[in-house]
C-alpha cells in the first residue's frame, strides 16, 4: 500500500495558504476563516466585492443549449427530438417553489446570503479534507457549480480538450478561477437569475439536463408542477447523475436514500413540515415514477423516421439555418427549435402500409418500393412509403428489411442516385408538344429507327448514330398515330417522332419548367449524361419525390412548387426563422394542363389505355401514367386534383442490373415481365383510395376538360418535321395496312361518371393488332 502522507507543518501551511487565497478570492480576510462561529463572514465578502475583478467573463444565464422538437403538420404530434444535451430551458417562474427549495437545501443552504462563495462551506471543506484527513469535501456554492457547468459546456461546444480538462481538474487553481468568476457573476446577475441558470444547466440524470427535462422524463409533468417528493428526487441526482438516476433499476435504492437525505435537509431548513417529511420518506420511490420516453433523433421514431431523416437533411442543406453545415447542425442540436413540418401523419401511415402490402419487407425478391406524396399548389411533402424499416445503424448492413437510406428522395436529401422511370415521363412530352403550338391530334409518321441528328438543337448536336426504339414487347410501331393516342397507349415510337419535331432542347426546357432535376447531381436534364433522345421515354435518374412534385403540377392547373418539408420554425425565444420557400408559380398554361389531364384520364378509362389500374373508387375521375424501364424498374404516378399527387417506383434500388425484374416471383406472384401496372399503379391507387376516405376528399369530376385549341384536328407531320408520306403497306411487326390517313375520326370519350367529352382524335388505322399494356421494352413500357 502507498505510504500515507504525514501532515507536516509545511504542508499544513501550504494548504492553509491555499484556502486563505480561496477565502480572499471570495472576499474574506484570512483571520475570519478561523474565528469561532465564523460570524459575519458573508457580510465581509460582500463588503470587498467591488475590488474583485475577472476580465472578459460574460455568462448569459438565460441562454443555454436546449433540445429542438420536430412536429407533424398539426404542430402537436411530436416526430422526434434533437439535442447534444437533453434540455428544455424554462424561466424560474415555471419551476415549482419546492424544486427551488430542494436544490438550495441540498447544494447551498446559504445561497441567498453569500456573494458567490460560501466561506463557511469552504472552511468546512478545508477542515474535513486536510486537517481531519477525511473524504474530500467540495464546499462549492451553487454559483460556483453553475460557473463550472458553463465552462465545461463551452469547452465541449468548442471541441477544446484542454479547456475541458481545466474545467474539471481537481486543483486549487480551478477552484480559485471558479470563485473569482462566481463573485463577478453575483455582481452582474441577481440571485433568482443565477438559480434559474443552475436549474437549467445542471445534469439531473443520464443525458438529462435541466429540471424541466428531468420533470418530464421521470414524472411526466412540467417543472412547475413538481411536488415535494418529486423535487427531492431530482435534487438528489446531481451529486452523481449516473449512479442516482432513478430510472435505472439498480440505482433505485441509492436514489431513494439520497432523496430522503434531501427531504431531511428541507425539514431542517424549514422548507417543509414534519408531516410533509414523514409522508414523503414513507413513499417508495418506484411508486412515484411515471417515466416519459423521448425519441432522440430519427433512429427510434418508427414510420416517421424516413420523413424525419429527410427534414434533417433539408435543415443541414439550407442556408436559411446557417452559413455552414456545422452551424446548421449545431442549431438543430442546441437551438431549442420548434420545427413544424409538412408531414401528414395519415398520409405517411397509409403510404407505408400500401408500400409494404405491395412488396413485403422480407420478400425473397429483395425488391424495394418507394413512394412519395405532395400537396398540389403548395409543394408540401405529405409523407413517404417504403417497404423497409428505418435503421441508420450498422444493423441494416446485414438485415435486408432495414435501410438508413430513403430511396424516395434525392441523394442530397439522404436518398439514392435516382431511378429510371420509363413511360411515366411521357406527360412531360405532351406538355412540350402543346407548348410548341401543336395539337394532340396531329398525325405523326413513326418508325423504329431515328438518326440522333433529328433531335439536334442548340445544346444537343446528335451524332452519326441512330436510336432504335420499339413499342412494348417488341411490337414495332403504329403509323400514323397522334400524340394523344401515343400517350394513352404509351407508345414509344410516337414519342420519338414528337422529339424530332420539337427537338430535344424543348423537351428539356419543359422538364425543367415542371421541376425535373437529376436525383444524384441536382442538375437539369440538359446538364446530365441522360440528355439523349432516349430521355423521351424515361431513361433518366429521378427520385419519386421529384416525380410526385411534377405530377402535382398536373394536379394544380399548372402551378409548380419546389418540394418543401418545413412549414414553420421558431427559435427558443419564439421568433420565426426563415424557411426554404416552395417558390410556387404558374409554370404551365392551365388549358394545356386540362388537356393533359383529359388525356391521362383517357389512358385510365379506354380499353386500349395503359393506365386502367389507376381507377379510383366511388366514381372518382382518375388520372395516371405507368412506366417500365426495361426490367430495371417500374413506376406509376397519379393524383386527386388540388388534393394530393403520388408517385411510386419499384425495383432493386441498389443493384438493379444484377437483380432484374424479369422471370421473378414478387409477393408470391410470378411474372416473366413486370410492368408499371402490376405493382406501382395498384399501390398508388390503394393509397389514394384510403387517403380520400380518411380525409373525406371531395370529388371533382370536372377536372380534365380538354381545350379545343389543343385538340383541333391536327396537321400531318413526317419524322423530323419533313413532308408526311402515307405508307401503303407497313413492314413493321404487328401492323395492319393503313389507308385513308387523311380522314380523322371524332369519337365521344366519356369518363366513368357518365359524363361525355367530345374531342377529335387521329385515325386509328393499324391499331387493331397492337399489343398493349405490357412492359419490358428497353427504357420504356406502360
Automatic annotation (TrEMBL):
Signal peptide: none
Coiled coil: none
GO CC, one annotated term: outer membrane-bounded periplasmic space
Pfam families (UniProt xref): Transgly, Transpeptidase
GO biological process: cell wall organization; peptidoglycan biosynthetic process; proteolysis; regulation of cell shape
Catalytic activity as recorded in UniProt: Preferential cleavage: (Ac)2-L-Lys-D-Ala-|-D-Ala. Also transpeptidation of peptidyl-alanyl moieties that are N-acyl substituents of D-alanine; [GlcNAc-(1->4)-Mur2Ac(oyl-L-Ala-gamma-D-Glu-L-Lys-D-Ala-D-Ala)](n)-di-trans,octa-cis-undecaprenyl diphosphate + beta-D-GlcNAc-(1->4)-Mur2Ac(oyl-L-Ala-gamma-D-Glu-L-Lys-D-Ala-D-Ala)-di-trans,octa-cis-undecaprenyl diphosphate = [GlcNAc-(1->4)-Mur2Ac(oyl-L-Ala-gamma-D-Glu-L-Lys-D-Ala-D-Ala)](n+1)-di-trans,octa-cis-undecaprenyl diphosphate + di-trans,octa-cis-undecaprenyl diphosphate + H(+)
An annotated Gene Ontology molecular function: penicillin binding
Keyword Iron-sulfur: no
Residue stretches making up the Glycosyl transferase family domain: 77-266
Compositional bias of kind Low complexity: 728-782
Keyword Secreted: no
Record-annotated Penicillin-binding protein transpeptidase domain positions: 464-632
Chain residue ranges for the region called Disordered: 725-782
Keyword entries, A-Z: Carboxypeptidase, Cell shape, Cell wall biogenesis/degradation, Glycosyltransferase, Hydrolase, Multifunctional enzyme, Peptidoglycan synthesis, Protease, Transferase
Assigned protein family: In the N-terminal section; belongs to the glycosyltransferase 51 family.
The protein's name: Carboxypeptidase
Biological source species: Bifidobacterium myosotis
